From TrEMBL:
Domain Sulfotransferase: 110-345
Record gene name: LOC114481431
Binding site for 3'-phosphoadenylyl sulfate: K119, G120, G121, T122, R123, R200, S208, K325, G326, R327, T328, H329
Protein name: Sulfotransferase
Pfam families on file: Sulfotransfer_1
Disulfide topology: C308-C320
MF GO annotations: [heparan sulfate]-glucosamine 3-sulfotransferase activity
Topological category with respect to the lipid bilayer: Single-pass type II membrane protein
Top EC class for this record: transferase
Subcellular location: Endomembrane system; Golgi apparatus membrane
Active site: K119
SUPFAM superfamilies in alphabetical order: P-loop containing nucleoside triphosphate hydrolases
Enzyme nomenclature, EC number: 2.8.2.-
Length: 362
């Protein structure tokens, strides 16, 4: 603009038009050069950018001169291609690692597994712990150690989410706790695997289990028919899965052949409902995590009758567990319930002694 005004004063009109065109053309050329050379270096954060000094050159002329050498520097190092978020990591890592690894981590075998028990509250524990930024979990039950073991560890690993070095990989498959081969198989994957068992009053658990099966198989025999070999004599059918799963002491004996007790954490399924933050504090301690999941993450949903998450991992809205969690249970004859309590009592006492905690299932 200054160039045009100056020309207006000094040069006769016939030359002005030509002069203005040349002036505008040279300005346009300068601008194009500037655009071509300068903006690449501006995408990289200044703290780690080798062309940092280039951006701070004073005045357009110096900036233009410097941008040429800066652009050359950037081309030789290749760093102008690196996304700002990964630049710091890239500099401290092995050059052969792919960029996807630097950004999202890689798939690792789980460091901690929720191994049981079915209908204990395993989904709630997984959904609650995975809001911790240092935890990532497989969404579905893998059943690797009980049903899919022949597929191999690489198959298992492929089911895991990508994690950064600081993050723990987790999965949950509740049937592991009652599968004979599972403790040995997990131990042979890694003897350091941390194990979480969510336990619940075995009588309520059995009724919950039955309620679930009935919802899928409406012509199922009655609970009493399945639970007792002879109800009037009080003989319980221990071969029925819904009963067998609740014999926690027997299953735990099998795990203790392969893992020390200190490596197994027991979550109370009852307290998980009345005090989710308290139970989650203990889970975080057990996993060696900072206590980030606290009572501010939960609210009690009166319609559902259960605690729900205020803000889950994947979205910004509150969320309760699905309809299959927290069902209304089938009504069972109180006498049958009393008989089952008598049946489980010695096993429960044994279990309390083994783990050093009284869960008060009476
Ligand atoms: N916050 C919250 N919301 C809903 N449900 C909760 C919650 N906390 C614990 N529970 C209890 O979890 C029970 C289901 O246990 P699991 O998730 O282990 O079931 S499963 O084995 O995966 O099918 C489920 O059992 P039922 O009540 O019998 O349906 C619940 O009692």
């Amino acid at each position: 603009m200054a160039c045009v005004l100056l020309l207006g004063r000094l040069v006769p009109y016939s030359y002005r038009l030509r002069g203005t065109s040349i002036c505008l053309l040279s300005l346009l050329l300068s601008y194009l050069c500037y655009c071509a050379l300068f903006p690449d270096s501006a995408m990289v954060p200044s703290s780690v950018n080798p062309t940092h000094s280039c951006q701070r050159a004073d005045g357009a002329k110096r900036r233009l001169q410097k941008s040429l050498s800066c652009a050359l520097d950037a081309r030789t190092t290749g760093e102008d291609q690196i996304a700002p978020s990964s630049l710091n990591t890239a500099r401290n890592s092995t050059p052969s690692l792919p960029m996807s690894h630097l950004k999202f981590g890689n798939k690792k075998l789980p460091k901690a597994i929720i191994v049981g028990v079915k209908k204990g509250g395993t989904r709630a524990v997984l959904e609650f712990i995975r809001i911790h930024p240092d935890v990532r979990a497989a969404g579905t039950e893998t059943h690797f150690f009980d049903r899919n073991y022949d597929r191999g560890l690489e198959w298992y690993r492929s089911l895991m989410p990508r994690t950064l070095e600081s993050q723990i990989t987790m999965e949950k498959t509740p049937s592991y706790f009652v599968t004979k081969e599972t403790p040995r198989r997990i131990s042979s994957m890694s003897h350091d695997t941390k194990l979480i068992v969510v336990v619940r009053d075995p009588v309520t658990r059995a009724i919950s289990d039955y309620t679930q099966t009935l919802s899928k198989t409406p012509d199922l025999p009655s609970f009493q028919q399945l639970a007792f070999k002879n109800q009037s004599l009080g003989i319980v059918d221990m071969s029925w899965n819904a009963i067998r799963i609740g014999l926690y002491a027997l299953h735990l004996e099998n795990w203790l052949r392969y893992f020390p007790l200190a490596q197994i954490h027991f979550v109370s399924g009852e307290r998980l409902i009345t005090d989710p933050a308290g139970e989650l504090a203990r889970v975080q301690d057990f996993l060696g995590l900072k206590r980030i999941v606290t009572d501010k993450h939960f609210y009690f949903n009166r319609t559902k009758g259960f605690p729900c998450l205020k803000k889950p991992e994947s979205s910004g809205s509150p969320r309760c567990l699905g309809k299959s969690k927290g069902r209304t249970h089938v009504q069972i004859d109180p006498e049958a319930i009393e008989q089952l309590r008598d049946f489980y009592r010695p096993y429960n006492i044994k279990f309390y002694e083994m783990v050093g905690h009284d869960f008060k299932w009476e």
